[in-house]
Amino acid sequence: MAFLKCAKLVAPRKIVIEEAPKPTPGPHEVIIEVRYCGICGSDIHAYHGRHPFIHPPIVLGHEFSGVVHEVGESVEYVFRGQRAVVEPLLTCGRCLNCRLGDYNRCKELKVIGCQTDGAFAEFVKVPAHRVFEIPDDLDFLTAAFTEPVAVAVHAVKRAGPLAGNKVLVLGSGTIGLLVAAVSKIYGAAEVISTDIYDYKLDVALRMGADQVVNVRRESLEEYIFKHVDPEGVDVVFECVGGVKETLEQAVKVTRRGARVVVVGVFGKPVEVNVGLVQDKELEVKGSAVYIFKDFLDAIELLRRRRIDVRPLATKVFSLDQVPDAFKYIDEHRDTAIKVLIKVKD
Fold first, then answer.
1. Is the pLDDT of residue 29 over 90?
2. Which CATH superfamily is domain 151-286 in?
C-alpha cells in the first residue's frame, strides 16, 4: 500500500504530521498532487475549535492548486499531468437547488478540507467534474487564490449591479480585500474598507479601496455620513463574521433601499435591528461559497492579472511546517493575511 504525508488537525490547536494511505480514484474521480494550499479563515476557526461545521480529526485545506496525478474510470476531459485547481464542493446532485444549478445551496453540501480530508497533504481525491484546468502562464501560488477569489466574485454578484455605487466592505482579511478588488472591477464608484489593523488597511488601498477606516480609532457611522455620503452607502459587504457589531454597523450606515450582503460566517445567532431593515427597506442577503461560473471568472481575473494577489501572500511554509504556520498566524494577527503551504515544487 502506498502512503502520503499529511498535516492532520487531531484536536483544537493540535496538528500532527503523519502518514496516511494514498487515496485511489473511484469512477468519476481524480487524484490531485498538491502544489500550494492556502490557509483560510475557516481553517483558523477550526484550529481553535470554533468552527460550527468543521471538527477534528481532519486534514484541512480547500484553497489549492496542483497537477492531476491519477484519473479514475469513466473520467473524460481531465487528463494526467493537467495543471489544475479544484472547486472543493461535494453535493448530492438530487435536491431542488442542485437541479436548478444552485448547488452551493445543496442541503447535503460538504466541502473538501472541511467535512472530508483536504489538501494539507501530498495528494487529495476530488470529483473530476470539479477540476478546472489552469493556463501555463498562471503560476501555482497565484492559482491557489482561485477559491477565495471565487468567493469574492460570488458575493459581489449577489449584491447586484454596482455601477456608480458607494460600497462599504467590513473587514480586510483575505475575503474582504478580494471583495474590495472585485467590487472595483465590477464598477463600484467608491469602495471604503474597514479593519482594526493599519497594515491590512494599507493593503486594502493597494487592492483598490478608495478610503479606509480603522474602526478601533474612528466611529464608522460618523466617518460614512461625514466623508462618504450623508445618506449612507449603497452596498455593504459583511466580511468579518461572528460578531453582532458588524451587522449593526451594516444596517446603520446604509442609505434607504440599500443592500447588505453577509459573507462572514456566524457560528452563533446574533441580534439584528430588524426595525431598521424594515423601515429602510434594506435587502439583506447571504453569500455562500460559489458555483461553476464564479470559479471560471476567478481564473480569468487571475490569468488576466486583473487582481494582483501578491500583496496578500504573507508567508509560505512547507507541509512539515503546517503547525508552525498556524502559530505564526496567531502571533501575527495584525500583518498575516494569506499564509500558504508549499506542498511540492
1. yes
2. NAD(P)-binding Rossmann-like Domain (3.40.50.720)
For the whole model, what pTM was predicted?
0.97
Cα–Cα distance list, 10 to 13, 18, 60 (Å): 8, 11, 11
Spatial separation of the C-alpha atoms in residues 223 and 99, rounded to whole Å: 45
**Helix, strand or coil for residue 143?**
helix
Find, among 232, 225, 228, 231, the residue nearest to 209 by Cα.
228
Tally of CB atoms within 10 A around 216: 10
95-151, pLDDT tens digit by residue?
Answer: 999 999 999 999 999 999 999 999 999 999 999 999 999 999 999 999 999 999 999
Dist CA 316 CA 321 (whole Å):
9
Residue 256 half-sphere exposure toward CB, CA atoms < 13 A: 4
Q: Please provide the distance, in angstroms rounded to a whole number, between the alpha carbons at the two ends of the chain.
A: 24
pLDDT band at 267 (very low <50, low <70, confident <90, very high): confident
CATH of 3-145+312-342, one of 3.40.50.300, 3.40.190.150, 3.30.465.10, 3.90.180.10: 3.90.180.10
**Per-residue pLDDT band at 308 (split at 50, 70, 90):** very high
